[in-house]
Prior knowledge:
Elements: H1 2-18, H2 21-28, E1 38-43, E2 48-52, E3 60-61, E4 69-75, E5 83-92, E6 95-96, E7 103-104, E8 108-112, E9 121-131, E10 136-147, E11 153-158, E12 164-166, E13 182-188, E14 209-210, E15 213-214, E16 220-222, E17 231-235, E18 245-250, E19 268-274, E20 280-286, E21 290-296, E22 312-321, E23 324-325, E24 331-332, E25 336-340, E26 348-358, E27 363-372, E28 384-387, E29 402-406, E30 414-415
Parallel strand pairs: 2-10, 12-19
Antiparallel strand pairs: 1-4, 2-3, 4-8, 5-6, 5-9, 7-8, 9-10, 11-13, 13-17, 14-15, 14-18, 16-17, 18-19, 20-21, 21-25, 22-23, 22-26, 24-25, 26-27, 28-29, 29-30
The protein binds calcium ion (3 copies).
Amino acid sequence: MKGNRLLLKTILLIAALGIAAASFTAAAGATDDVTPPVVTSVVPADGSTIYTNGDSTIYYQLGNPTPMTIRAEYSDEPGGSGVDTDSVMVHLDIANMLYDCPVWTDAEIACNATAADLAPGLHPLDIYVFDLAGNPTVHRTWFTVAVDDETPSYANLSPADGSIIYTSELNSAGNNDMDALRVEYDVIDPEPSSGVNPMSHVNDSFPPGVSGAMISNTSCVKNPDADNPVHYSCQLNRARLLQLGENQLSVLLKDRVGNNNHEDPSSLNTYTVIDDVEPVVSDIAADETAISASFSDPLPDGALSTLLASGIDTDTAKILVDDAMITEGCTATETGISCPTPTELPDGTYDIEVMVSDNDGNQGLGAGTLSIGAPSCTPGSPAWACVTGTPTGPHWPITRRGCFRCRSGSSTSVLPPPPVYSSLRARPAPVSSW
Ligand SMILES: [Ca+2]
Ligand SMILES: [Ca+2]
Ligand SMILES: [Ca+2]
């Protein structure tokens, strides 16, 4: 059946090229259609280049990583006799391809090209189509098959292999902050290059990853520099598994026909990340009963990884009152410290210092004051004097936490705190002067 069809096509071709079209017109019985069909949308496009890696039967076009199909659309003019579907032929290098054309309609044809069809070099592609009145069209285009068997590589990588990176360098204003510390490199893929497209390899460790975790693709910029179109830049603190200590950075590259450096050990770079950021001391509170503070070892701003702080060394936490360390009764955790206030302190104001180090030896400091006795007020200047804990002694007629506003013009009396207490709590007792 197919052999008969091919024979028919060949006869028609000979007729089209060698015999007067008029005789066909008469044979088809049409009367006034003298306009041949048109061929459009030929793939590969005229003048284009497609790439192969030389040892694969799969061919690629830039932007289209599917096995190569030769396509064409065709149509007769409005009011014409219409396309003769049986007349359509696709010739690659003057050879008929009709042995493998899964799509073959009155509007389009698609034929699969094999490796044997697509040797490196220039190829003519001819689409033959007649209308039912026998008017022939032969539409010729050219495309080139190029062998890309070179693996892409990179150059000018920064930070360089063996670099030490400090966590204080890993801050960013957010995603894709171009002022943040970035991995920068140039991609090299020798000509003929099928192209290296990082966006198509999100799940293939490209753009560069750290210990198996890719830097978020949205934190990478391709070609940020118009003068260097092969340059790539990715924000280092957006690698989820970037960690203190040693890190393996892989610049994994794959071109469009599958050549890759994934087994190349030279693509690995080692970075050592060191915590140089001190803990933060906050929420210092002091009253006649206890002195406490919170602390934390902060991560770099904008970092996706939670592995970039060495953590609080609880053994180093301490509280000093006027430079004297409280040595007994303190409780320290990774989130804070609390010590009993030294007893028998005379009325007055004392300097509080809180110190704590992280596990890499960076020391954080915090400072506050401890007031023993009545809150100090400046006559004529209203001020907030806040206490926490459970005040005791004759100066504190109420036993609860609260804030007290010194009465203007007086240093010896206080106003009650604002009425913000829960209904479950007892209303505060009236506060009297002392
Ligand atoms: Ca026509
Ligand atoms: Ca290549
Ligand atoms: Ca730290």
